[in-house]
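[Discussion] Sanity-checking designs against the backbone

I'm trying to build intuition for which residues belong where. Below is a structure token string of 273 positions. I'd appreciate it if someone posts a full sequence so I can compare it with mine line by line.
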């Protein structure tokens, strides 16, 4: 239950044992680590991924069920939730984790980049919540986990569509929590910086310059999520320093922007070298 300060007073980890859990993008990286960790805590896990073989492999490992498909389309989300309900009965925890990095600059085109990144990084959460909320509100209980990014609180250089759609994901998570906490919805929003996954490996000079040094393992993200579930905390910050950057951005935006632009110039020097 949520107290007046918005903190959940009963540990949400208690409900993971035996819970029906869905993880999108669970075939690799952060999603796989979350699937493994929640299964180890006793959850029954449905593993979604675009890559059917990856979904099958993780599902077999966690003694769960694979539900491959595209979490970035309306049909994909509807089919996943129907398949998960068929296997689990109720979905107790939905981890909307799949994301895409696509698109680098201000010149990124509308259709193939901005729209696709918007569908995967933002609309996937909106569509899943639309399907799940009526049942959760009726039961007075449900947990929605959104993997956004520190880019959703700050920005990611070299990735305009990613930064914008992760801000939208974080804003949507906040809106859900603000609107439905008193009716039994618990929301966690995961906002890491660099995590050693394929996505980071593909992030080019910007990722190398900004994220690589402080990059962490996907398992640390899953640990941070479990800690936040135990404490009933909305923001999951596997890199604690993000809280300070976020505060600086809010209180001295120009200083923060000057720092970011300095980093941008370092990326450009690397690109020229
Ligand atoms: N790696 C990082 O540094 C980092 C940092 C902050 C946030 N994130 C976020 O974490 C989430 C997971 O990223 P990751 O680093 O584990 O990536 P990853 O590329 O290592 O793994 C993502 C998995 O999701 C699957 N996938 C991609 N698009 C999908 C779709 N439309 N439907 C279903 N499955 C899909 C991929 O096949 C892959 O198995 C993303 O939302 C990402 O934006 C990653």
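Best answer:
Here's mine. Compare freely.
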């Amino acid at each position: 239950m949520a107290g007046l300060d918005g903190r959940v007073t009963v540990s949400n980890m208690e409900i993971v044992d035996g819970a029906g859990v869905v993880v999108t993008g669970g075939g690799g990286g952060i999603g796989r680590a979350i699937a493994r960790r929640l299964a180890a805590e006793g959850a029954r896990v449905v593993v979604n991924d675009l890559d059917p073989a990856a979904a099958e492999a993780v599902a077999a490992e966690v003694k769960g069920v694979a539900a491959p498909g595209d979490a970035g389309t309306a049909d994909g989300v509807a089919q996943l939730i129907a398949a998960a309900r068929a296997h689990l009965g109720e979905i107790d925890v939905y981890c909307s984790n799949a994301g895409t990095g696509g698109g680098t600059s201000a010149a990124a085109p509308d259709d193939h980049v901005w729209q696709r990144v918007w569908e995967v990084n933002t609309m996937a959460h909106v569509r899943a919540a639309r399907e799940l909320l009526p049942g959760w509100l009726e039961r007075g209980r449900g947990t929605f986990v959104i993997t956004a990014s520190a880019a959703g609180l700050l920005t990611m250089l070299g990735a305009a569509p990613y930064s914008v759609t992760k801000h939208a994901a974080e804003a949507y998570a906040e809106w859900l929590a603000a609107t439905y906490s008193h009716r039994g919805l618990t929301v966690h929003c995961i906002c890491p910086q660099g995590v050693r996954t394929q996505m980071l490996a593909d992030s080019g000079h910007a990722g190398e310059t900004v994220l690589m040094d402080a990059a962490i393992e996907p398992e640390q993200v899953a640990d941070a999520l479990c800690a936040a579930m135990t404490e009933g905390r909305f923001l999951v910050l596997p890199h604690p320093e993000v809280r300070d950057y976020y505060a600086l951005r809010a209180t001295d935006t120009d200083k923060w922007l000057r720092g970011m632009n300095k980093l941008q110039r370092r990326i450009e020097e690397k690109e020229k070298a």
